[in-house]
Design a protein that fits this description.
Distance between the termini of chain A: 16 Å
Radius of gyration of chain A: 21 Å
CATH class of the largest domain in chain B: Alpha Beta
Number of helices of chain B: 25
Oligomer: heterodimer
CATH topology of the largest domain in chain B: Beta-lactamase
Number of domains of chain A: 1
Strand content of chain B: 15-25%
Distance between the termini of chain B: 104 Å
Helix content of chain B: 25-40%
Largest interface: A-B, 80 and 56 residues
Number of strands of chain B: 23
Radius of gyration of chain B: 34 Å
Number of strands of chain A: 3
Strand content of chain A: under 5%
Order of helices and strands of chain A: HHHEEEHHHHHHHHHHH
Number of helices of chain A: 14
Shape of chain A: globular
Helix content of chain A: over 70%
Strand order of the largest sheet of chain A: 1-2-3
Shape of chain B: elongated
Largest sheet of chain A: 3 strands, antiparallel
Number of domains of chain B: 3
Largest sheet of chain B: 7 strands, mixed
Chain lengths: 370, 641
């Protein structure tokens, strides 16, 4: 039986917020680059919205059946991209099908959420060591592949996602702390064997700026701080940022777009955008709370964590309080893969919300089927 | 489960956001003035640090091309601007500047002494002022246009980066004069000496077709290059974390780029990466406060070729002023030892003589060894013979009567000797280059086996040598017997490059392996560490029986002892080869060929000689050239001849 979607349950708070954020994003991509990119960005947004509404039609629970298969496929793509991916700036993240380039690491974020949720959804009566072990394995295999690409940022997003899903699925607190402790214990190993030298430099440069030898990152950080700082309370006005318009600021329309916003719009409006994001995340967690079906609940919490981590790390790195690891600001930064991923994630959240209040009977049926 | 955990998750998120807002408050409200000051007063000027292009050496380490440092004189933009204003009185923004209004002076008065540098410089260099400043107008107008655009977009006065740059006004300045400027820095305000590498080819014309030449990027190319570069940065921005390449420049406006030969083929390896220096400058005076960032340039890799410059020189000498080419190759490895083509050009002077060279009727830029596709004539008979012997259409006993011609469907096919060769077998047909034997063979052989064998030998396909613009020639599909007969003796629609034929004879010499001709021996980095050595991609063994090869080799030896190339004195050098005279269709206008290998008992060199558009026959024209080449290659055997 296909469960019907009720438009009444469409989230009329989140959707307008996303629309406002998208508009602001387009405005600042325009300010930071040229009309060419605005046009491309609009095309991506149109594609994303279409995808968003199409995906609403399907029942999210059907994804649960295929979660492991999707996971295997994306994992395979990750391995493939390591082997044959086009080298952009010396790293392998892409591979092209025709003129379209696919970036599996972006899709891995969503896939991991779907898979972990599928694995942990019925662990009502506590999570054992075995479950934790499998979850860790599910997370660290793709993470290792993504770090190898090397794409530190995307890999780092996976950790909070894992923790939040475990936490919501009912991990005991002492287990959680042990997990975090163990993570810290093995981090020297990761440092020694997984990270490339420039990635290490970047982290050193963040922790002890005076020791930084990788001045590329130091340059980014400095330019970003100058941009944000010179914004002041009201900003220099749209299209008037010195740092932005004179191209001092690197990666203006993608990773560092928040610096452009801060410079040109000032403290008050930057806070307004952060407020929009907070409302968005609060709504997301609200959806997770009101969803009684465990799979949906875990998926929503995972996706919301994904968004929150991206926002916090991206804004943090423009403000010089997080290492520069190349994470995009959802719905604002220029870029196709990131835009599509964000819309897919959003669509899944909406989907779960729209299904959550329909009938408990079918939820029960799904639970007993297992 | 634990409903409160949602609350805790939310609280954690909100805590993070609060932290961000606090940091934002700190930066934008508390420390704002500090950063506002920086963004207003700080200007970053960037200077490129030129990378040295890799040198090119031959197999023995003899230098064929290298970068020599010459000196350019560059001038600060402001100097040019003042000069421009004085001479044109046109830039409104200078005239209207506040400082001028306050001083109640006109622009010219204010900057009276600003043009001193032009006089001094023109005296020192001995170049008239007009010539020195011939590009100044263009530069100023370009920068001002750019500035206007930026200002229009931002809506207020802005200083753009180009204003802090230095622009070249004189190049290739002598060392003594450079020192003068460096010593008296104070009397040359705003003048800077910039070292710039220039490409020189110490051996001048030697191997010019292999080395190629370099020339300046034109505006259009530079735009596509720099556009590519920008796209490169932007496309990676989508996920970019690696900022390293961002700070490197690809090509700059006045860069030279390899246009042909290995200079083009290995452009990416030789080019190196330009470094960059960021300097922080305060706005009030142009004093450099401190160097904040510097990225040293990475010099290009050195290229070692398989060429032996000695043999190359011999080959060029032997070829003399004949329009044509000589290739000498190692038949076992495919290493090109020499590749001479005439007419040549001097890569040092290409840019001055370019128009003359490009319009020259004998096309000096053409590397005839790989870019000339010509009918091979009798040289091709080796392929026909291999095809016929391998498919058992003929054997050593097969003989045909040559009356000087043969007919097919009322068409007469002539042998080159009008009296005929009498009864010939394959053992005589190759030495005497009897066309009739091959006409008859072609009749029974048919088109398909010949086509297949020619393709196996790499005829009609690029050899894949590491030089740009190689031609593939043409191996026609033969539909009727008459065409097969023409192609069998190397005429008709068949077109081959000399290098393809060199490969065919190398295969005969080395026992049936089609080698990969190449020029790259190894690439080394600045420290002499080997970066890459040549690895053959394809080296295919042809399915020729040893017996067939023996027949061919014996016949090729006899070409020299009793055949078309006897009495040329090649016998003493143990040459095995085949002459060829390809007809162009016009009277007394042939291509003379000689291809083979030497010595025949243990082949060391494999060679092809081609002289285009000559009245004589293959043996007459190419034979003596081969003799001369051999006398250089084996001086110890000279007395014997």
């Amino acid at each position: 039986m296909i469960r019907s979607v009720s438009p009444r349950n469409f989230d009329w708070v989140m959707f307008p917020i996303i629309c406002i954020i998208l508009t602001i994003g387009v405005l600042f991509v325009w300010s930071a680059s040229s009309e060419k990119f605005v046009f491309k960005q609009l095309v991506w947004i149109a594609m994303g919205l279409t995808l968003f509404f199409i995906l609403l039609y399907f029942d999210y629970l059907s994804i649960a059946h295929y979660a492991y298969i999707i996971y295997a496929c994306v994992l395979f793509l990750l391995i493939l991209v390591l082997g044959m991916g086009g080298a952009v700036k010396g790293s392998q993240r892409w591979f092209s099908i025709g003129s379209f380039s696919v970036q599996p690491s972006e899709f891995m974020k969503i896939t991991l959420v779907l898979t972990l949720a599928r694995f942990l959804r019925y662990k009502k009566y506590g999570i054992g060591l075995f479950d934790i072990g499998v979850s860790l394995l599910l997370t660290f295999i793709p993470m290792a592949l993504i770090v190898k690409q090397p794409d530190l940022g995307t890999a780092l997003v996976l950790v909070p996602v894992l923790l939040s899903i475990l936490y919501t699925a009912g991990i005991r607190l002492y287990q959680l702390f042990m997990l975090i402790g163990a993570g810290m214990a093995i981090s020297p190993l990761v440092w020694m064997f997984m990270l490339k030298s420039y990635q290490k430099m970047r982290i050193i440069g963040f922790l002890w700026p005076e020791k930084a030898t990788d001045w590329g990152a130091g340059y980014h950080r400095l330019q970003s701080l100058i941009a944000v700082g010179s914004g002041g309370l009201f900003g220099t006005g749209w299209g008037n940022g010195t740092q932005n318009q004179m191209k001092f600021l690197p990666e203006r329309h993608t990773d560092f777009i928040f610096a452009v916003i801060s410079e040109e719009w000032g403290f008050l409006r930057a806070c307004f955008i952060l407020f929009l994001y907070v409302v968005f995340i609060t709504c997301g967690i609200g959806i997770a709370r009101s969803t009684r079906e465990p799979y949906g609940r875990l998926v929503v919490i995972g996706l919301v964590t994904m968004f929150a981590t991206q926002i916090v790390v991206n804004v943090g790195m423009t403000l010089g309080v997080a290492p520069i690891v190349g994470i995009t600001l959802p719905f604002i930064s220029y870029g196709g893969s990131s835009m599509l991923t964000s819309f897919i994630a959003l669509s899944i959240i909406f989907n779960i919300k729209m299904h959550s209040k329909i009938d408990l009977a079918s939820e029960h049926r799904y639970e007993t089927l297992r | 489960m634990y409903p409160y955990r949602f609350k805790i998750t939310l609280i954690i998120f909100i805590l993070f956001f609060t932290g961000i807002v606090v940091r934002l408050f700190q930066l934008q409200i508390i420390e704002s003035n500090k950063y506002k000051g920086i963004s207003k007063n700080r200007r970053i000027a960037t200077y490129p640090l030129e990378a040295t292009r890799g040198s090119i050496f031959d197999r023995n380490g003899m230098m064929l091309a290298t970068d020599q440092h010459t000196f350019d004189i560059t001038v600060r933009y402001k100097n040019l601007l003042y000069w421009y204003v004085r001479n044109n009185n046109a830039v409104s923004r200078i005239a209207g500047m506040k400082a001028h209004k306050n001083a109640k002076k006109t622009c010219a008065e204010c900057h009276e002494n600003q043009d001193e540098w032009v006089k001094k410089l023109s005296q020192l260099l001995g170049i008239p002022q007009n010539k020195l400043l011939s590009h100044a107008k263009q530069i100023v107008e370009k920068v001002e246009r750019l500035k206007q655009n930026v200002e229009q977009k931002s809506g207020r006065a802005t200083r753009i980066r180009e204003e802090a740059d230095y622009y070249p006004i004189a190049s290739d300045v002598a060392w003594e004069k450079v020192i003068q400027i460096e010593i008296n820095q104070n009397s040359y305000p705003g003048i800077r000496v910039t070292p710039r590498p220039t490409r020189i080819y110490p051996q001048r014309e030697l191997a010019s077709h292999i080395l190629g030449y370099m020339s300046k990027l034109n505006e259009e190319e530079w735009e596509t290059y720099s556009d590519k570069w920008n796209n490169f940065i932007l496309s990676s921005n989508v996920t970019g974390t690696d900022t390293t390449p961002l700070l490197y420049d690809g090509y700059a406006e006045n860069d030279y780029i390899g246009r042909s030969g290995v200079e083009l083929q290995y452009e990416n390896e030789l080019h190196g990466e330009r470094g960059k220096r960021f300097e922080e400058i305060t706005c009030k005076n142009t004093q450099v406060e401190k160097v904040i960032l510097e990225r040293p340039p990475v010099s290009g890799n050195n290229l070692y070729l398989t060429i032996d410059s000695q043999i190359q020189a011999y080959a060029e000498k032997s070829l003399g002023k004949n329009l044509g080419t000589i290739i000498v190759m190692n038949p076992w490895t495919g290493e090109i030892l020499a590749m001479a083509s005439y007419p040549r050009f001097n890569p040092n002077d290409v840019n001055e003589d370019f128009n003359k060279l490009i319009k020259h009727p004998s096309k000096p830029f053409l590397n005839r060894a790989i870019q000339g596709a010509l009918p091979p004539g009798s040289i091709f008979k080796v392929v026909t013979a291999t095809a016929a012997l391998s498919t058992n259409h003929i054997n050593t006993q097969t003989s045909y009567e040559c009356h000087g011609y043969t007919t097919y469907k009322n068409i007469t096919f002539k042998c080159w000797s009008e009296y005929g060769h009498g009864l010939v077998t394959i053992q005589d047909a190759i030495p005497y280059s009897c066309n009739v034997f091959f006409f008859e063979t072609a009749k029974i052989l048919g088109g398909d086996p010949l086509y297949a064998w020619a393709k196996d030998f790499g005829i009609g396909e690029k050899t894949g040598i590491d030089l740009p613009h190689e031609r593939s020639g043409n191996m026609p599909k033969m539909m009727n017997t008459a065409t097969v007969m023409n192609v069998a003796i190397g005429q008709g629609a068949l077109l081959t490059t000399p290098l393809q034929l060199c490969r065919v004879y190398a295969a005969v010499a080395n026992g049936g392996t089609l080698v990969q001709p190449h020029l790259l021996s190894k690439l080394t980095d600045g420290q002499g560490e080997v970066v890459r050595v040549f690895k053959p991609e394809k080296k295919q063994k042809l399915s020729i029986l040893p017996a067939t090869l023996d027949i061919l080799r014996m016949a090729l030896q006899e070409v020299v002892t009793r055949g078309t190339a006897k009495n040329t004195g090649l016998e003493a050098y143990k040459v095995a080869g085949k002459t060829g005279t390809a007809e162009t269709g016009r009277q007394k206008d042939n291509h003379a060929w000689f291809a083979g290998y030497v010595p025949y008992d243990s082949p060391q060199y494999c060679f092809v000689i081609l002289v285009e558009h000559t009245p004589g026959h293959g043996g007459e024209i190419a034979g003596p050239i081969a003799k001369e080449l051999m006398s250089y290659l084996f001086p110890e055997l000279n007395d014997a001849s």
